[in-house]
Amino acid sequence: MTDSKKSNNGPAFIEHNKKTYELPVYEPSIGPKVIDISKLYAQANVFTYDPGFTSTANCASSITYVDGDNGILLYRGYKIEDLVENADFLEVSYLLLNGKLPNNKEKKQFDASVTNHTMLHEQMSKFYTGFRRDAHPMAITCGVIGALSAFYHDSTDINDPLQRMIASRRLIAKMPTIAAMAYKYSTGQPFVYPRNDLDYASNFMHMCFSVPCEDYHVNELLSKAMHKIFILHADHEQNASTSTVRLAGSSGANPFACIAAGVACLWGPAHGGANEAALNMLEEIKTVDRIPEYVNKAKDPNDPFRLMGFGHRVYKSYDPRARIMQKTCHEVLDALKLKDEPLLQVAMELERIALEDQYFIDKKLYPNVDFYSGITLRALGFPKDMFTVLFAVARTVGWISQWNEMIEDPEQKIGRPRQLYTGDIDKEYVNIDNR
Ligand code: SDX
Predict the structure, then answer these.
(1) Rounded distance, CA 147 to CA 257, Å?
(2) pLDDT band at residue 151 under the 50/70/90 scheme
(3) Is residue 363 in contact with ligand 1, taking CB distance under 6 Å?
(4) What is the DSSP letter of 319?
(5) N or C: which end of the chain has fewer CB within 10 A?
């Protein structure tokens, strides 16, 4: 860490075994300062202990900033609200990747570079036929992305910036095609090729919902909603799946393998799988009068049930994405004349009751980005098991931006945490016949 980062309030000190250790403190551009403990083990022969990394910064990053107490989300310094309102998904993707908004010429070039790489190698469609038709689309997506490295050897040298840029654009371009093919495969309908005359979101919806027997016209408002949903999910600092991508990348693994690792981690119901789980929960609750029963279950320490789409490791206030997601949900349901959707009523009443309940107030539990996304995606025509796939499509640009930043960071080395060992020691080996 360069000296310019050092805090002018001076170092921190740790007292241990009657010795004092001085630890440098670094200034962020915004948010908490960090104490550099990287030399602590060498100096004091002790590890720090932080399961789940609740108080640990694993890198310096200039991509995304999350202020959990004030519900603020910035992509490269721009407010998420401004980006969702004014930009399309590829403009935000350019921003996340390059650190600045594109001018008209740069945007045109970037759009063209993504659009012209949306097709998959024809051999890759054979992977799909190896899966059962009822395979979860996340299982298919995870497998097919990992297989990309078998087709694109010319963009796997992570030390070549040109190859990193080619791999990044290939991943952004091909994710919608891979996802749409996973959906089509589950329906038994033929794959639909990408179209170069459609924008990113419209192309994705066309690949998912068009059939060879008739023309398909993307509804302008719905594709705008799709862009907003992709933007909301594009990046989110050092969340579990992004940290997975960084850790995989720290070993020098190729970008396709790293993104496949990120998809696998995102699938968990505590993370990106929460949008599917949240809709399952709303469908199980079914009616407003059953909400108190489920709120009580969520509060019962002996019941593992949690309100899916509620709570967050960082947001201890309203997730700004949830507010925008709720608004987009209303826009989509209104456009589709579904505004009496019963699950929306259940979701809004559940939110109202939970936000007034002392348990949720004390634990600072608010709706997160996954709470309203499920209702919106179902209204757009996606089945539940595609929700996390859509999250992965959007998050690919965040993962690959963070991966590039890590590769270019001179401080980064292979990630290798230590442990607090609590197992046996000095055990005598006993022959199997005497056990
Ligand atoms: C995402 O990290 C990111 O940025 C992720 C993400 C991104 O964009 O990448 O924002 C996307 O993953 C959003 C989160 C989606 N997950 C869910 O909606 C699943 C439900 N939420 C919970 O599982 C939970 O809130 C987590 C996993 C999201 C956060 O858990 P933490 O930070 O580890 O907090 P915790 O589990 O320690 O909970 C603190 C307390 C606990 O009670 P006590 O042990 O203190 O008594 O709050 C309780 C929890 O039991 N609690 C909940 C709850 N979430 C936490 N109780 C009821 N319902 C919930 N949803």
Answers:
(1) 8
(2) very high
(3) yes
(4) -
(5) C
Rounded to whole angstroms, how far apart are CA atoms 27 and 8?
8
Q: Look up residue 75 and give its two tokens.
A: 């992509």
- The amino acid sitting at 318 is Y
Q: What does the pLDDT average to over 267-286?
A: 94
State if residue 262 touches ligand 1 by the CB under 6 angstroms criterion: no
Which of 92, 109, 110 is closest to 101 using CA atoms?
Answer: 92
- Ligand 1 centroid–CA 76 distance in Å is 26
Question: How many whole angstroms separate alpha carbon 340 and alpha carbon 215?
Answer: 29
Tell me, yes or no, if the pTM score tops 0.70.
yes
Please, which pLDDT band fits residue 8 given cuts at 50, 70 and 90?
Answer: confident
| Helix (H/G/I), strand (E/B), else coil: 12 | strand
Token code pair at residue 318 = 């309203």
Cα–Cα distance between 148 and 296 in angstroms, integer?
46
CA atoms of 103 and 363, how far apart (whole Å): 44
Q: Is 370 in the pocket of ligand 1 (CB under 6 A)?
A: yes
Please name the amino acid found at residue 112: A
* CA of 333 relative to ligand 1 center, distance in Å: 28
Burial class of residue 151 in the structure, from the number of CB atoms within 10 Å of its CB (0-12 exposed, 13-18 middle, 19+ buried)? middle
Location of structure tokens 């720290």: 250
Q: Tokens 């004390």 identify what position? A: 362
> Residue 292 has which token pair?
């108190």
Q: Residue 196 CA to chain centroid, in angstroms?
A: 27
> What's the alpha-carbon Rg for the chain, to the nearest Å?
23
The SS3 assignment for 59 reads coil
Q: What is the pLDDT of residues 114-131, one digit of tens each?
A: 999 999 999 999 999 999
The token duo for 312 is 């967050």
* Separation CA 111–CA 119 (nearest Å): 14
Going 204 to 369 to 396 to 126, the CA torsion angle's sign is: negative
The sheet that has 64-67: what strands, in order across it?
64-67, 72-75, 78-79
Contact by Cβ (8 Å): 137, 127? no
